[in-house]
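Support request from a user on the community tier.

User writes: "When I paste my structure tokens into the form, the page sometimes reloads and wipes my input. The last time it worked, I copied everything first. Here is what I submitted, just in case something in the input itself triggers the reload:"
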């Protein structure tokens, strides 16, 4: 495999922005009721507007979660087709008076990514057998066709809606680059084997959790972001715990902070501000 490119092929879809805020409860409680009502009458329609991107009213592209623990109070996740669209959402939210009660605690920018280790090895091998030299126009055209077919076949995974699941767990992660555990110097065939075994664990949980992997190399401080959506938060522990025993995680993974939230319908924001959670309707 040494003569093949080290970098596996990837296909990308929606850009993703996570925002975590602390809420200024003291300032909110000291605001007159009439003012709070007016502020919400401005904020809720805007949040409802950005729930989808306009291309498909039935697809939820943004969602709000009540965060557990000290890391924040509200978390928003947004799927969009461009970085500019994500930035426009940030700017629109910043123009509301409701935003004055929010303090940014964390954000994360990434892009939905599917790694194609198996397709990469097959494609590189086939092109080598055809005598095509790497990165020549003919080689690039052939690789482009492979990526096009994969994008078409996996479009639903590349351009997801926010699942209706009650809970969200998000965390960033890296692959290690240490002297005795450097992911990036492993042969591609070995990385492909490790990722295949790793992925088989996730598949066993497919009926209980929806997973969205996004790449963030060059976009944020970690290399990948992981979103897990489930109706039972215990599945987050079970899945991640089992994966810790997997070779690729045990030897080559580093993890950032974990953020867990309870999905809150935008139209019920006032209920959350009164100190109550609202169950999402899945009808």
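"...and here is what came back when it finally went through:"
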């Amino acid at each position: 495999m040494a003569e093949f490119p080290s970098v596996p092929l990837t296909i990308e879809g929606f850009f993703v922005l996570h925002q975590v805020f602390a809420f200024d409860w003291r300032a909110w409680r000291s605001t007159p009721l009439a003012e709070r009502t007016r502020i919400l009458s401005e904020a809720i329609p805007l949040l409802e507007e950005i729930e989808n991107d306009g291309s498909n009213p039935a697809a939820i592209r943004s969602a709000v979660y009540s965060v557990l623990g000290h890391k924040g109070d509200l978390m928003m996740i947004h799927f969009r087709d461009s970085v500019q669209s994500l930035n426009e959402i940030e700017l629109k939210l910043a123009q509301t008076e409701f935003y004055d009660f929010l303090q940014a605690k964390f954000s994360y920018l990434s892009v939905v990514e599917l790694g194609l280790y198996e397709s990469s090895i097959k494609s590189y091998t086939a092109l080598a057998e055809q005598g095509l030299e790497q990165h020549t126009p003919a080689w690039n055209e052939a690789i482009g066709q492979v990526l096009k077919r994969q994008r078409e076949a996996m479009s639903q995974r590349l351009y997801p809606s926010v699942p209706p699941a009650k809970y969200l767990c998000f965390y960033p992660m890296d692959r290690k680059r240490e002297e005795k555990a450097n992911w990036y110097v492993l042969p591609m065939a070995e990385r492909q084997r490790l990722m295949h075994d790793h992925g088989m664990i996730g598949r066993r949980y497919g009926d209980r959790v929806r997973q969205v992997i996004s790449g963030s190399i060059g976009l944020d401080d970690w290399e990948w972001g992981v979103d897990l959506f489930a109706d039972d938060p215990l599945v987050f522990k079970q899945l991640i715990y089992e994966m810790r025993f997997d070779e690729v995680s045990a030897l080559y993974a580093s993890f950032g902070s974990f953020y867990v939230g309870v999905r809150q319908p935008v139209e019920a924001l006032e209920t959350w501000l009164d100190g109550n959670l609202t169950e999402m309707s899945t009808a």
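Agent notes: The reload is a front-end session timeout and is unrelated to the input. The chain has ten helices and nine strands. The CA atoms of residues 37 and 270 lie 9 Å apart. Escalated to web team.
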